[in-house]
Write a structure and sequence with these properties.
The chain is α/β, with parallel strands linked by helices. It has one domain (about 5-130): CBS-domain. Helices cover about 35% and strands about 20% of the residues. Helix 2 (about 25-35) links the parallel strand 1 (about 15-20) and strand 2 (about 35-40). Helix 2 (about 25-35) runs antiparallel to helix 3 (about 55-65). It is elongated, with a radius of gyration of 16 Å. Keywords: CBS domain. This is CBS domain-containing protein. InterPro entries: CBS_bac, CBS_dom, CBS_dom_sf, Diverse_CBS-Domain.
Length: about 140
């Protein structure tokens, strides 16, 4: 279990959000990928921020109430996201999870986004490997 790394459970098929993306497109990406948040990157895949369902809900409520049009992700994203390394042990990441912590973590290598890891993927792997629970492999995991 200790040898299981973030790279073993991360998703690498989700397209990140680019700066300037309209919030309605962000919402479509969140719903399509069944995730609660996505990293926001520049053209070189450097992580600049993170946008969550909660950010989108609030911004869309406010913009529709005031008839302000479609906001862009830059207006609502969190600009200091927590990132993790692909080499980090899943056990170490799991020990850091808790109330108020992100549900989705951008995975970076040399400052560039290479994937995301979710609490659900970590839970699934911990259940399968450590608890003897016959949990199915999480749909988004790499292998």
């Amino acid at each position: 279990m200790r040898s299981l790394k973030v790279s073993d459970v991360m998703w690498n098929h989700i397209e990140p959000i680019r700066c300037g993306t309209p919030l309605t497109r962000v919402v479509k990406a969140l719903l399509h990928n069944h995730v609660t948040g996505l990293p926001v990157v520049d053209e070189h895949r450097h992580v600049l921020g993170f946008v969550s369902e909660q950010d989108c809900i609030h911004a869309l409520l406010v913009s529709s109430y005031h008839c302000e049009g479609d906001p862009i992700v830059d207006d609502v994203m969190f600009r200091e996201p927590v990132t993790v390394s692909a080499e980090m042990a899943v056990v170490d990441l799991a020990q850091n999870l808790g109330a108020g912590k992100p549900k989705v973590y951008p995975v970076v290598d040399h400052g560039k986004l290479i994937g995301v890891v979710t609490r659900s993927a970590i839970l699934s792997e911990l259940a399968r490997a450590g608890c003897g629970i016959d949990a199915p492999k999480f749909a988004g995991s790499a292998s």
